[in-house]
Specification:
The structure is a single chain. This protein is an all-alpha fold and 120 residues long. It has one domain: Globins (Globin-like, Orthogonal Bundle). 66% of the residues lie in helices and 0% in strands. The N and C termini lie far apart (41 Å).
Length: 120
């Protein structure tokens, strides 16, 4: 049986580092930072570590209904989503994820665009 991206990457410890680095980039982004002005970042990073683990085939599960419900009131536009995908791609590449693994994660995120984007 083939190892998941999560396992090949090094599991939780690696994903936690990636997510922390990703949110440093998000908070520096003029497109995204306003979404996080009053957010408990340690709590969000913990939650997003589980979500990214899920995207990588790790031991977490998020239903499409849950993803849509959580994002419904956040006012996320397509530009926000595109910036987030771009920053996550850049972060994964900087953490030496393979081109194929980065493409898989992008595909998983893009499949959920309609659940996350609420402003068209």
């Amino acid at each position: 049986m083939a190892l998941s991206i999560y396992d090949r990457a090094g599991g939780f410890t690696t994903v936690r580092k990636v997510v922390s680095d990703f949110y440093d980039r998000v908070l520096d982004s003029p497109v995204l930072r306003h979404h996080f002005e009053h957010v408990n970042m340690p709590r969000l990073i913990d939650h997003q570590t589980r979500f990214v683990s899920f995207l990588l085939g790790g031991p977490a599960s998020f239903s499409d209904d849950h993803i849509q419900r959580v994002h419904a009131r956040l006012g996320i536009g397509l530009d926000d989503f595109d910036e987030m995908v771009s920053l996550l791609t850049e972060t994964l590449e900087d953490h030496d994820f393979t081109t194929e693994d980065v493409a898989t994660v992008r595909k998983e995120l893009e499949r959920r665009e309609s659940l996350i984007v609420t402003i068209r």
